[in-house]
Structures are given as C-alpha cells and as structure tokens.
C-alpha cells in the first residue's frame, strides 16, 4: 500500500465492517422488518457496499434481501461539462421497485448531485413507497437539500481535501483515507 | 479512456476498443428499452437533425426514436418536399441547419462521401453521423449487426473472435456490406462475401475478407449469414440474366437453410425483396433475427448519440 505524505487513514478494515453492521441494524430497525426492502448501490463503490449491507441485513432478518446496482451517469447534471463517460451496469431485481423501500447506497456523500441523479433514475424505474440513503462517508459541502438516513462516518472536510474510499472488491483493500493536499497537486497521483 | 471522435463517418475509423465501447454502451441502453419509462434526460437541450436525401424507413425512424429517447429535440428533414427539390445545394442546406443550431446532423445521401464533405468543409460545427452514403458506408448498420451477432453467438460479451459471417448478394451496391466487412474484421470475425462476379466491386482484394461465388459451400461454415438486398434502383445495366436465376444461385430458401449449422442465424438489413434474395419462409423462420436487428438498431444509435454528444467534447467546438 502506498501512503502519500499527507494522506491519512480515517477508517480501517475493522472500522468499515463495524460501520456496515451498524448501518444494517439501523436499516432493519427503520424498516421494521418489512420484507419489501431493496438495496441499490451506485457504481462504482456503492455497489460492493450495497452488497455487504444486503448480506448483513439478510443475516439479521433470516431471509435474503434483494440487492442491485443503479447507474446514474445518464441522469447527471454535469454531463455537458465533462468528457463523455462509459456507462456502468444497472441491475434491478426482477420484481421491480414499485411499492418497495429502496435504500440507495453510495460510498461518499458530497455535493448531493449524484443522489439527485439517482432519485431521477429511481423515478424512471418505478414508484417505490420509500427511498432512503445510506453512505459510508458524509463529508459535507452539500449543494442540494439532500441528507443521508444512514451514515458510516461523518467526516468534516475542507473543499480542497480528497476523500478516498477503497473496498476489497474494487481496490483489493478496505480503508478510507483523507488526502489534505490540494486537488490538482502534481504529487497527488 | 479512448472515446469516439467527433463524427461517425466510417466503420473503418473505429478501432477495437471504440467498437466495443459502443457495443457495451448499447447493452446498457438496451435495458432502458425494456422498462416502462423508455426515456432518459441525457441529451436535454441538444438538437439532432435527421437529414435524409434518400428514402429510408428503418434508419430514419430508428435515429429519430433514439434521439427522442435521450430527450434531444429532433428535426427530420426529407429531401422530398423541401427546398432541395427546388435545387438547393448541400452547402446551403448545411448552412441553414447550422443557423438553427444543430448539435448533430445525421445524414443519408445518394452520393458517396457526402457526410465526409459535411463534416470537414467547415459549414457546420456539430457532429456528423453517416446514415448511409451512396455505395460507400453505413456504419450504424454494421454496429447493430455486430451487436446482434455478439448477443446470439458470443453470449453478449467481448468481441467476435472466430465468428464466421457470410455476406451474400449485391455487394457492389451495398454500403452495408462494406461497413460490415471493416467492422467485423476489426472485431476479429472472419467474413466471406458471396456474389455473382458482376456484383463484386473492383478492388475487393484489398478488403479484409475472402470472396466466393458458391453459396452452398460458404453456408456450411457460417455462424451467421447476412443476405443483402438486390438494389434494383442503383442498377443501370444488367448484372444477372434473370431474377429467377439469381434467386436459384444466390437466394436463401428453405433447402439452403438446412445447410447451415444448427445455431447459425439469418440476417438481413432490410428492406427485403421476398422471393428474390430471401424466400418468405426463411425470412419468417426462427433462424431469422431480422426484426431483432431493427430493435437493436435503436439501442445502437442511442449509444452512438450518447457517446458523440453526451460529453463536453461536442460543445467545446473545434475538431
């Protein structure tokens, strides 16, 4: 593992797994054991997190919990500002989301714009009874009136800091790092 | 990541990574077509012009639907009933479209090279997509054919390595054949063209494919057979003695269907001349994926529009 001089680990593997367990218990408590729960991860790192949460909720509840992925690229409001991006898979459980409690899952909540796009994407897929939001890190600096229901860790940051969440499934390692070097610094890569 | 350039003029301009990017994007967009709300906000505020100097049903409707599903504003322009029939030139038509703020122009033209001229002459700023030019190219048809082949033969993933495709019929006048040869070769497929010698274009030996005059031999090795329309409207002279003879030697009928491998598919870009290059019972058989090709066409064109117009590249102007 490469540590940059100014990068520090905020959560390690044990912290992450404790946070997943707590979030899962909160989801169970919040949904009062309802059996129409669907966990949808937002690519890239929301998807493995959603899968872990769904597995943990399934252990607690004793029955499987449907889990999927929802790519929001085509709904983003910054498309004309950036280079075109490749689409990630969208995978919605076969029974659909109508009347269900959908829990959207992402790794980091920042401006809230990704979640706005996700809400639009959910709206086009059906009409869930309730939509909730779970994130591993809430780093603040919201630009839209969006707030998470389940949070792994509140992490107050400055705008020029970078928060990096890594999961074994994608990155080969579980941790959350905060990098205080200003964005665009040549050494950051 | 290597994305598409600004225009889509030739299937030969696409490298393997770009072609796979389009096919993978198509696969994701196909899920949108299956759901009840078949609409995405992705190209809101963009204007797409369908500029059709030649007749078309499938391609024009397909591009129109693709652009609408991505929420672009679509204007469809047919040469018939427009100022083109009063003698307006391609340049003046292009300048008119530019003045109306077109972000993309999808052009079909009887003259080979018209889309290239439109893209490079500096008349318009937007992207140009070739929807068929003369006997030259029809890249989105090749892409939808590649997508159809991949979903039937390769499990919907990766390239077309080792797939054997036989393209039969009026190769001489076929922009579909030319685009397919280039694209399928890029994706690793092996292509055999089968036609009477009079319908094989000059210079075919420089194409990345083999040529045969015997349909029955070629069919036995095929994973897919693509029948081309006999383009009577482009045939000034006589290219074969009679339609009956053509049909006997190069038409796909029920007995010939038996020669194909068990899982081989039958394709046709449409419109079909039933009874000439393909018999009605073959066209309606379970081997034929002709209607599916049309459905895939919408998704492929959505993918092309998204990749060409969905990012900053197209708005930044320049080239």
Describe the structure.
The complex is a heterodimer of chains A (189) and B (319). Chain A is α/β, with parallel strands linked by helices and 189 residues long. Chain A has a domain of 132 residues: Rossmann fold, CATH 3.40.50.2020. Chain A contains 4 helices and 8 strands; from the N terminus they run βαβαββαβββαβ. In chain A, the strands form 2 sheets. Chain A has a 5-stranded parallel sheet with strand order 3-2-4-5-6, with helices on both faces. The longest helix of chain A has 19 residues. Chain A is globular and about 45 Å long. The C terminus of chain A is likely disordered. The longest helix of chain B is centred in the last third of the chain and has 20 residues. Chain B is an alpha/beta fold and 319 residues long. The chains are: A alpha/beta (189), B alpha/beta (319). Chains A and B meet through helix 3 of A and helix 1 and helix 11 of B.
Helical/strand content category of chain A: alpha/beta
Strand fraction of chain A equals: 15-25%
Strand content of the residues of chain B, in percent? 5-15%
Give me the secondary-structure category of chain B. Answer: alpha/beta
Number of strands of chain B: 9
Q: If interface size is counted as residues with C-beta under 8 Å from the partner's C-beta, which chains form the largest one?
A: A-B, 19 and 25 residues
- CA radius of gyration of chain B: 19 Å
Number of helices of chain A: 4
Oligomer: heterodimer
User: What fold name stands as the CATH topology of the largest domain in chain B?
Assistant: Rossmann fold
- Tell me the number of helical segments of chain B per DSSP (H or I, 4 or more residues long): 11
How do the strands of the widest beta sheet of chain B line up side by side?
A: 7-6-5-8-9
Regions with little confidence, pLDDT below 50 for 5+ residues of chain B: 314-319
Shape of chain A: globular
